[in-house]
Amino acid sequence: MITSFHPPQRTLMGPGPSDVHPRVLSAMARPTIGHLDPAFIGMMDEIKQLLQYALRTENPLTMPVSAPGSAGMEACFVNLVEPGDKVIVCQNGVFGGRMKENVERFGGEALMVQDAWGTPVSVDKVRELMQQHDDIKALAFVHAETSTGVCSDAQALCRLARDYGCLTIVDAVTSLAGVELEVDQWGIDALYSGTQKCLSAPPGISPVTFSEAALEKVSKRESRIPSWFLDKKLVMGYWGGGQKRAYHHTAPVNALYGLHESLVMLQEEGIENAWQRHAMHHEALKAGLETLGLKFTVAADARLPQLNSVQVPEGVDEAKVRSLLLQNYSLEIGAGLGDLAGKVWRIGLMGSSCTRRHVMLCIDALENTLGEMGVELPSGAAAAAAATYAAQEQ
Fold this sequence. Notes:
The protein is built from 14 helices and 14 strands. With 394 residues, the protein is of the alpha/beta class.
């Protein structure tokens, strides 16, 4: 007979999900009410305001899609890309490739800007391509590439798009609440993110925001939006604001309790303080990893503090290390994807997984595991380096 499922207690330091704070888990266990209940509608308005705070935007169309980040991505493309539209898509990792597929699935033409994995999107390459075409409808790029740990210059790319009169579609799945992100100030037109990274809520919901310019594009479409569920004109009847809501779909009530609580916690901490916390603990982790002799994939000036891509030492079985970390320390770190599969580990410092305790556990566990596998290391030096740096930042 199948019995109740009781998952093991893990420490999540991979590319996501991150550890979910007990306050968020507790919020999700509260009584379920109807998705059109006046109390729930009041909470929906608060979620919208909290997301506007986290994203630094006043966009009226700011809401959580009732599905994971991949659906948030599709929501942006299905509403903004029409057959025949030329869209510049920047790819420097796995997730730029998914943008390309979305453009093509909805009948657009993807003009690719390719950069090496682990390097930022080249603003110069984008400018050069824009100069070659006078009918670009949108520029799509990943702000924080989860597959490599690189951060691209979203502000410069959005400024360039504005200069050439096209919209921007931005993947901020890993950047939201982890590094500076200024939707209004930078002029981002459409953005999607996820809840399971630096917000430390469970996966399954995707915050999105659309600018007035993006909504104008939607309103002037010549073709019908090919997705009923993700049609923003329909969804806004439910998420639009006010007490009277049109039924669109049954929202994930308890999951939204969790998102609400995680956003309340972010507001309590302060968004700038959250950015600083991720940067601070990254430096402590970096001190420990470099003492172990591990090298980063991404140059320091483009490195994400919340997603650390480190090269596997020569001769080390990277999968075995991850397996031993899970077996002996109940610690999860991530493997490489695509071009970096088998070559790197991806170590997350996201949201509730971004603490001094997480840094020290990861350094100790890696040091012990590598030592047991025969890698020569200075005993205790890595943990001491991380602890010394962390103490300086207190």
